[in-house]
Every structure is written in C-alpha cells, then in structure tokens.
Amino acid sequence: MKREELLEYLDGLLMPGKFRDYCPNGLQVEGRSEISRIVTGVTASQALLDAAVERDADAIVVHHGYFWKGEDGRVTGIRRKRLATLLANDINLLAYHLPLDAHPELGNNAQLASRLGWIPDGRFGEQDIAWLGTLAEPCDLTTLAVKVAAGLGREPMVIGDGARTIRRIGWCSGGAQGYFEQAIALGVDAFMSGEISEQTVHLARESGVAYLAAGHHATERYGVQALAGHLAQQFGISCEFVDVDNPV
Fold it and tell me: Is residue 237 part of a domain?
C-alpha cells in the first residue's frame, strides 16, 4: 500500500484533528512511499527502531513519538541516533498520542475496559480522555488489584482499604493522576491510571477513594497492539506489535 493511503486511513480512524495535543500526530518522519510491513509499539525508542530494522519494516506506528512541546529541538545525542536510524533505513514514523487514548474501540482506555471486564458508561476530564464505568462483578479492592495484575501483567501500586467494595471505577491510561480529583467528585469507588504522584496518596487516604497505579507502559500497550491487528485485517499486510519491556 502507499504511505498516503495508510495516513489517510489512520487520520480518518483516529481523527487527530479533534485533539489539542502535546506533539504532532500522524507522520513524523517520512520514509519510503510503499508500505508492506508495519511495526507498532508504545514508544519510538532505539530498541523499537532496531526491532523494526531487523524485521525490514517500512513503517513504525507508535503512541509516543517525537517533537514534544517544550523539549529541546536540537538534533544531538540520542535524538540524532534515533533519527539517523529511521532516515538511513527509509522507515516512516507515525505517532498518535491522545487520539489513541480516546478511540472508542482501539484506544488504550477501551482496551483496558475490555481486558479487565469493566463496563464503560461515561467520560470525563480534559477532552473527555478519562473513562467511567462499573465492574462487571463488584469485588473488594484487594481482589480488584489481583485482577488488574493478571490482566496487565504487572502488579499495581494500590492506595486504599483492601476490604472496600468497588462498584464504580474511573480510569485513564498513562500519566493521568491529575484526573483523580474529578473522578472522586463523580462518585467512583476507585480510580486507575498508569502513574501516581506524592499528593495522590493523600487524596486517596482523605477521600476514601482507592487509587491504583498500574504502570504507564502497562496501561498503554494495548491500544497500539489492537491497532496492529486492525491494520493487518483491514489491509492484509504484515503488522506486528513489538513490546519493548518497560517497568514504569
């Protein structure tokens, strides 16, 4: 397929124009025009780039790409090596950040609900990125943490009373601890994100609402994984998700 065909399809599917984001969505580094093999991953790290080169990929699609607002724009050191790898091997780099968090089926938050058996019934937060819902089967916090660990392959950090019954839950992948207060105000029993801050602990203790920090990487790998399967089915081309381990 042509690069422009892939871009047009992904832009129509993920609708990046709807979002105010912290990086450019879509094509970030231009490579060859013909695409027959795609690699997807969470972050465009050197390890992912090297894996794409080994697989003779024509394009890489990630959640975390380059050119973030406020970062140093000079092409030196690690950035130079990453860009040199892409350019020397004529590989396209495409990135979709908030659009891949928010997509109702393939997005990170939708995939978390699917994996963990949660039933979405609303959204909240800036640009409706965070999700609300109910557990298919209410359980205590300790049991919920065990289910999250089994579903995501990573034991979460849990703040709260393990015996508390959890029915209503809010969640948002990645570094979304800033939405915790809004979730509390909306009446959830627990909130899950990828990261946690010092003040999050106090909010959880004082509100009585549980907080689960399940890992930034762990909560954001299922969107690009689902996207890989979708593209392979849609276009009949090789599309492989490569999981570069990250404990954070």
Answer: no
